Amino acid sequence: MALMFNGIGVSKGIGIGEVHLLHRNQVDVTERQITKKQIASECRRLRRAIKNTKKKLLDASDNIPVDAPEDVSAFIETHILMLDDGLLTQTPIDIIKTEQINAEAALQQQREALGKVFDSMDDQYLATRIDDVNHVIDAVLQELVTHDKVEEPSDWKGQIVVAKDLTPADTVSMQHHGVVGFITETGGQLSHTAILARSLGIPAIVGVHNIRQYVKNGETLTLDGSSGMVLAEPSSTMLSDLDKRRKSLKKQQRKLNALIDTPAITKDGIELSLSANIEIEEDLKAVKRVNANGVGLYRTEFLFLNRDTVPTEKEHFKVYKKVLRALKGAPLTIRTADLGSDKLLSTSASTANDSALGQNPAMGLRGIRLSLNEPTVFLPQLRAILRASSFGPVRMLLPMLTSINEVLQVKSMIETIKTGMREENIEFDEAMPIGGMIEVPAAAIAAAQFAEVLDFLSIGTNDLIQYSLAIDRLDDQVDYLYDPLHPAVLQLIKHTIDAGAEADIPVTLCGEMGGDSRFVRLLLGLGLSNFSMQPNSLLEVKESLISSRRAGIKKSAMALLKTSDKDEQQRLLKRINKH
Ligand code: PEP
Ligand code: MG
Q1: Which of 153, 190, 429, 563 satisfies CB 3.0 to 4.6 Å to 177 for a cystine?
Q2: What residues pair up with 549 in beta bridges, in sequence order?
Q3: Predicted pLDDT at 131
Q4: Which has the closest alpha carbon to 357: 339, 375, 384, 380?
Q5: Ligand 1 contacts CB of residue 510 (under 6 A)
Q6: pLDDT tens across 4-30, in order?
Q7: What residues pack around ion ligand 2 (CB closer than 5 A)?
Q8: Ligand 1 center to residue 464 CA distance, Å?
């Protein structure tokens, strides 16, 4: 019988494929039924994990310093002996076979059984040896997870990956491997994993609580990335309905392709700039496919992920130059690393990760704060961006600005770098524009002051909404509060657009709202002409904007700034979006 689940649809499209449960990043002991066919491979996983754990302990034992206390080697020897004991090796294998459950759950079951035995021991000393048992079991569990971490995504073809959560790096590695879609138990629509799924065109749903307990590897699953509906073991009628919808979405896309070369001008003659958000070089294919007006936001955090060292100036430079070459003269806005919060460094060579892991990372050392705090991470990037500026139209964008002082500090660093580069005869664009993300409410309110010291502004609605409505963008429990129509959000956006116009500097909007065809006409009505978005949305946005007139929308857009009434908001939005 079909099972239905609901989550938050974050990336449009229909996915039909086999379940691939992914267990990584945490030791997950959730019990999952496995099929008869999977018993042998699950037993192999456990045996391999035990073997690897033992090998590590033997290595550790060989490397114990001669002057180390006797206890140390006794401790390790005990653990090695335990790994030879059938109670920890054979019994969990028997449990996998008889109960048809995963290795982690079988080990956990045996841990609980042994815990009871130790608890009932009268001998205090022996009773405390359960700590050793736990230690050894934890090490084996960790090994099971570690092995899954290096699982090659090549066997994901045609599958729907189901995971507790996925890092942005996981999502990127899926793109080349024919993954049909993914479902996570946690995460909001503004998480980077969700943003990436949209930009890679992978149908995705987040926030499907506990789904891993109900689906099995290999069974058929469908997902509808628009409605957020997941079906496990769907009937043939359900499958054929979904297939019809998939075909109609494809037809819609083909229709939009006719707009690729159409100029981006509204019916009342307003020239628009529709540029692309990119994160990785591969995104450039989509930028070209939709004929975007260059890159309005290059998120450079990906250069820092999945590596043990901080990228050097040379590495940054090489990538930027390559991107510029691919853009063939179209503008490239490079945002300096917005690390911290949901975009953590995976490098152990920097203290930046520790600093970014504050009590409340979204409000901690993130973005420009982290960069100013870590010059060894920041300076090579600044220099590389400047060097790249001699190879094409580069703009530098600073994330997470809160105070003018941050801009002044960066500008002073840039001046020092420029002086050095002049002395070294290194070419750069003397007039390279420096802009700032307006994504913290304080910066939006003080947009006029920022406009005095910056060459352009870029509104980041993802964070602006997170911070002004106090909703963690990664937390699916508060995702229902995500409300781009909240008058506070709209007023902050309008205030920023006006501040840019007053100072005669360009204002772009590069948050997800600017790629959402439900809201772009409203933004046009509020005075916005520059939109940057993930390339897959660009043609839909273009279709909506070029068929509209700002003059006809303005009144309703201004009325939306002032109303909190949900019905009235929907009525006004409908009027704005009416053809
Ligand atoms: C934003 O906050 O809207 C934005 C574009 O930046 P990011 O999503 O990378 O935080
Ligand atoms: Mg942001």
Answers
A1: 153
A2: none
A3: 74
A4: 339
A5: yes
A6: 999 999 999 999 999 998 865 556 677
A7: 439, 460, 463
A8: 8
Residue 182 Cα to ligand 2 midpoint, Å, equals 23
How large is the average pLDDT for residues 102-130?
83
Between the CA of 305 and the centroid of ligand 2 the distance, in Å, is: 17
Q: Is 18 left (phi over 0), alpha (psi -120 to 50) or beta?
A: beta
**Tokens describing residue 356:** 């970014």
Q: Nearest bound ligand to CA 460?
A: 1
Token output for 404: 């003018």
Distances (CA, A) of 173 to 154, 200, 288: 10, 11, 21
Beta strand segments in 460-555, E: 507-509, 530-533
3-23+151-235: CATH superfamily: Phosphohistidine domain (3.50.30.10)
Query: CATH homologous superfamily for 264-548?
Result: Phosphoenolpyruvate-binding domains (3.20.20.60)
Q: Domain residue spans in the chain?
A: 3-23+151-235, 36-145, 264-548
| Position with higher pLDDT, 227 vs 341 | 227
Edge-to-edge order in the sheet of strand 159-163 = 3-6, 229-232, 220-224, 14-22, 159-163, 181-184, 204-206, 8-11
Token pair belonging to 445? 């309110």
Predicted pLDDT at 147: 61
Is 462's C-beta closer than 6 angstroms to any atom of ligand 1? yes
The set of residues, in sequence order, having a beta carbon less than 8 Å from that of 440 and lying 6+ positions away, is: 400, 401, 402, 463, 464, 467
By the 8 A CB rule, do 251 and 233 touch?
no
- 166 has pLDDT over 90: no
CATH number of 36-145: 1.10.274.10
Length of the chain: 579
